[in-house]
Queue: 4 jobs
Job 1
Amino acid sequence: MRDLVRRIEAATPPGRDRALDALRALAILGVVLGHWLVTALISDSGTVRGASPLTHLPEFTPVSWVFQTLAVFFLVGGAVAARSHAAARARHEPYRRRLGARLGRLFRPVVAVLAVWTVAALAMLAAGVPWQTVHTLGKLVLSPLWFLLVFAALTAATPLVARVHPLWPLAVVLHVDLIRFGLDGPAWLGWINVAAGWLVPYCLGAAWARNGLKDRRTGWVLLLGGAAATALLVLLAGYPAAMVGVPGAPVSNLNPPTLAAVTFGLAQCGGALLLLGPLRRALRRPTAWAAVALLNLGAMTVFLWHQTAMIAVTATGLLAGELLGHGPLLGLHSVPDGYGWVLARLAWLPLFAAALLVCCAAFRTYEQGGRPARPSREKRPAGAREARRA
């Protein structure tokens, strides 16, 4: 392990902003842990259905404030794409060449997920598994793909949106919500916010790439202003306090994004900017940087397979319980209606993580180009390819 750490450190370009990679890693981990904590699969009369502990335990709503980190991912994505676009222009290189490589890395792992789950769904239906169960599991696995579609669209549009001020898409979100909620307008207008809402942190990242966010004062303004605006929207305008969807709730802050979700994202972006200094200092340590680099190498694989890992552990526990004559296992496929469920779910997280590591070992090569890595005859640090692509 120490040798791997040394190779990654030696292969990292001197000018790389390691804090960007750390923010991306934190955003991915936030999404994964958030899904594992607020998603329950309940065994009920021979079927499996989804539920959320936030429905029964609203006092845990602040958990969604910690682990709903999508705005940070779009912030980093906007910064990376804007820098890539500027570098391509400086070298008179067609941006579509870099875009093709970026989109390929995004969507190659999707093909593997779709193939595996198509076979799994057909096998479950052929074995007599109820359609409701297959639908629940398939929706759980495939619903995160909306994120990749939006992210890919914004990445492709970088030459057009790189210089758009974040206030413009924020104004669009404000007017859409005003019409939807204030003037009783059509609900479908909310889907405009899928692009406009996430364009706000993406454009903020592009401004960061142009060195427009150097002052720590900007971070504090975003953090405090975004937090205050979100609090006012929740307390006075009736927006949900949870920053994730809650089954049965009349309004979701994410489906589609609301003004509260966007202002909350601005607060997160401000916090991310304030973390840059501490992260850069922490990542001078080779061990810390190696962990971040390795996670970034498989970021999309982790994102795409984390729900499958949870489902695999849940299904294994359900089968084991049936064979041993036990009822639903607490924290795994029981109703999430008490503190005992929360404590039990925390105890299951290491097994979810172990299952995710197995998925990453099996499918990580699709993110890196679809072929297993082969030993190289070149005399270069063995970690060079990994560190540079992280």
Job 2
Amino acid sequence: MTTPSAPTAPPTPPTKGPSAHAPSAAGYRNLIVATVGFALTFWAWNLIAPLAGVFGADLKLSSFAQSFLVAVPVLVGSLGRIPVGALTDRYGAKLLFPLISALTIVPVLLVIPARHSFGAMLAVGFLLGLGGTTFAIGIPLVNSWFPPAHRGLALGIFGMGMGGVALSGYFTPRIAKHGENLPFIIVAVALAVYAVLAAVLITDHPDRPIPSTSLGKRLGSAGRLRVTWELSALYAIGFGGIVAFGVYLPTYLKTWYELSPTEAGTKAAGFALVTVVFRPIGGWLSDRVHPAVVTSCALAVVALFAILQAFDPSLNPMGTVCFMFMAAGLGTASGSVFALVSQVTPQPQVGSVTGIVGAMGGLGGFVPPLVMGAIYSAKDSYSIGFMLLSDLALAGCVYAYGRMRNVSPDTSTA
């Protein structure tokens, strides 16, 4: 008698979506185009800061007024990420990336007639904030095209687009030497060319979940996630520190170390370049070690060297060493925090959560320049500002290690 064979289990259906396979050529194409656009719009976003000394001298601005002028685009660009991130969830990056790039051309060109009026410059700075919102478009785009095992590095590479701040710091004052309006014309033309290319080359992932609920409901749902605000706090320290140094470091170097605008812009660009290099390193490490651990270690480095800089060492070599290590720590933390976003956030809400987290990161860059300007005006010293940075970084270090290692999408609402 033949023994009946055991029933064969039906084959498991293939998993759909980007997590089932290695990154595709389309994924890499979207990553490259998004990163270029991020860098270019960030250059536009940061056009005022490298020339703040020139504007300040022409308009006879106080230290605080000059700080406020460079901080306004940061504020608007940060808050703008909240609706732009939610709109990206709904309409996709193929529409939003070229649209925002094209709209940013308007305030870039408006700087030319506005540069002789403080009120007009504030209004233009408000509109320039639009360029800072593209971060909330690129993160969900890249997140959808790359599987979890490759997502940390991919998001880190996209984050290198914040090198637009370094490009602006280095090239804007040098281009301005050949014509005070030339930087704005060049950036406007570059944005126009990019908007056309983005409309052709960017594609949304075919399996991208499209929410059907209203913008308000989606933002409200993301805002009710506890993890949204935990990630926001960590990103406000990491990326906020990068933005703050990007917009205020030239002023600090000119005021405290008496560097020329060109020298200060060059050193600030070097700081930004280090953050750009270490952001994908933070993402790469997060693919191998828990991103909360990477974030904790990176912020510990920031805390240590902020304390050392608070003692006002000479710029060469100790001050430069402190700034380079702070840049490395902040860049690494920025990359690891967004690796953490993709790990602990429900997939359909990545864009909305990204918008809120990105906004809080930008707001983290809005406050320090104002604080530093006010402290210097009151105390003729920046030491208190660096000690505050060390306190915040240490707090983030402890919280990332103690709490965020145990968070998952299932517990993110707790």
Job 3
Amino acid sequence: MLKKFLYMALLGAVMTSCSENLMDEINKDESNPPASSVNAKFQITDAIVGTGYSTWGGDYAWYVASFTEQIFGTGNNQLMKAELRMRSETAASSTYNNEWNATYGNLMNIKQIIEKCEEGGVNSGQLDLKGMAQVLWTLSFEALTDLHGDIPYSEALGGSRQPKLDSQESIYTDLLKRIDDAIANIKAAEAAGMNNAAGQDLLYGGNLTKWKGFAYAVKARLLLNTLYRNQSVLPDVLAAANEALSAGFDGAELTIFNGVDCDNSWTAYNWSRYYSGACGTVAELMAERNDPRYDVYACDLFGTGIEYAPAGDDVLAKSTETVGFPTWLENGAATLHLLSKSELYFIVAEAKARLGQDASAELAEAVTASFEDYALSDGGMIGFDPSSAADYIASIGSASLAEIMVQKYIAQARDEQIQTYNDIRRCKALGQEFITLQNPNNTSGGQNQWPLRLPYGNSDVVSNPNVSAAFGSGNEAGNYLFTENVWLFGGSR
């Protein structure tokens, strides 16, 4: 009887196993293979676009542009509220929820690429794809921690349903290690002649020398961001930047837009809402310098006679289709920068100036690159001539640190406002104020209304107790944004 029972049990187990295996085969969708079996080169395309279009070119940039006063928020809605520094908009966890989720979603894709390039993965040994993904990982988490401070990092991306908040200090330590790993992998892949991404790489078509330059440029910026915390970092900044230049870095930008059926994010947003105007803080700096870029930046495109609005102007913020705006917002084919050529030269110029070295050549290169960028982004609307840069540079005078930072501010009004936000906060932490912000709403009733960081996304505020505790509740929710700097720029967390 016992033998019969054991036989029947064993037969049942075998039959169950066979049935489960058979069902697995029957239920397999051959036309939609699992993500784990997809070649990572097809994922790198989405990773690049997501990093440029959403993280560095979406909601974060649109709102931050008002805080840096490089764009005037108008249209009697969200950006108007940001322009008037209404806490209901500035400090709401819902304001940046889309970009918060999109960035972490893109990072999950980037993580999969890296894992597939590990031993045993679909792309095992493809160090070029791995290096590219590591650069994009660094860029994406750089934006998140620069903007929010302490964020889910080590336990994020599938590590925990309620990941802890890692300190910005620990995150930056890891990002600097990861960008070095990326550089090492890209160099090894370059030496081996790899080109596994090819046309799926929308930045450089698999050109690893260009990726190497990009990685070094990212490293230079990361290092410069730590200046308040490490006063001796400038030689390392220069070393990384010079490696980028030696590799021929001439910008990392998305050039995939045509202005017909594929528009860059700024133009798509502008045509949808017309919430972005030219701001007097930039326009007046240009006018003071007789800057030819003024006509591109402050263009009376609505024909109202109002080329720009003073920062924080209550009446014009509530107006619709009234304030002039940069011509590139009408050019859907304008590129999107992940890191521009001009920014790298400004990084070198600032580092040299702070070290007491002559930065004239680098300032000239940076401004020339900005003029070229303004001309291309204008798309021929006013026929801006970039050759006017030579006379303009001659009129600037010496390459003082103050003028370098003003010129960088003007150049980055194009589409690099997130880094301007970092620069303003970094310089303030160092006790320096090269850009005088003009918005009267930055303070109210003796209290600061200018956000020192951005609020977390609502999806985590309501579901992750670690994020919820940091964000606060009730009347205290989000108030820390106006009192606590991020660690990089003087805060304790």
Job 4
Amino acid sequence: METPGSQTSLHRANLERVVRAVRMAGSLTQAEIARTTGLSAATVSNIVRELKEGGTVEVTPTSAGGRRARSVSLSGDAGIVVGVDFGHTHLRVAVGNLAHQVLAEEAEPLDVDASSEEGLGRAQRLVERLIEATGIGPDKVIGVGLGVPGPIDVESGTLGSTSILPGWKGINPGEELSGRLGVPVHVDNDANLGALGELVWGSGRGVKDLAYIKVADGVGAGLVIDGRVYRGPGGTAGEIGHITLDESGPVCRCGNRGCLETFTAARYVLPLLRPGHGPDLTMERMVRLAREGDPGCRRVIVDAGRHIGSGVANLCNLLNPSRVVLGGPLAEAGELVLGPIRDSVSRYAIPSAARQLSVLPGALGGRAEVLGALALVLSEMGDSTLLESTVPAKGPSSLRK
């Protein structure tokens, strides 16, 4: 038995610290592990050697600062994780290993609003098909990250707003999918997962405080504070789309008037252009036409940017993030939308907060949320599991037949 404070328990804690650092980064040199964990170079060297001998990590030659180094990543045999992203019109699934490599990924159209039964059934079948395609045994699945386009109630695990996904009323999506797959499922809203994806793989790399603003059919924000997603006690932190801009403005689906969402989201801005551009206009096509010079589309995007900037200015004054990353199809408009955002921030934010802020487009596009779902599993899984020789099965599973 390990005694707290004993050499054995201290060694075990150091093993887990190294594994955790590598798990969150994907790969690190030994010098980077030492800086991240605060352990001495000699201790890191000994632990890496032990983990390599045990099959937990892999070590490959690399270079850092022009010098030879050794890159440490988790073993490809240590397990795999799955990301599932439900958008309002699509389902996307990705399978990755613990070294942050995506092994398989696929998306298909889906009307998620219509039925939770259909959506979860489609997700189950796609997950099973992609895992089989990797050639890795289903017993190696450590967990699944699930993203949904709405706020998740922290206590109950259910969607916090039935007006967003009426076909999912009363459903606990994590429990439902876990019951189908027989593995742990971690759930979050799409904006939080977009923030995680950009933090680990995209435009948020290298910072600890950022806001990911997703503008699509709705508007939401994922907030990262000191390297961790902040959800709030009820799970609704980041609902930037419901900041009031005009008390006499359009009625929002939340019941208030003049929310940011009513000036920027697809369901509100596209009808402004459809009389001249047809009923099938989408955000993606609006952005494409704007980039080609269409004056109406350009005007709508610029106006949306100014309104988004007002919301970002409020975030700056409250949380002082160092970076804002714009996601969703509107981000493809580039400086046409980013310029007005920066102008509004400069006008309405506290000058010191505005000076420290950088506003960037997302680097991952439509993949941000599904990669964030992978990152969610990587952040929630226990390090002790990785120090065992195998990943134990946890009850009956459709993946472990």
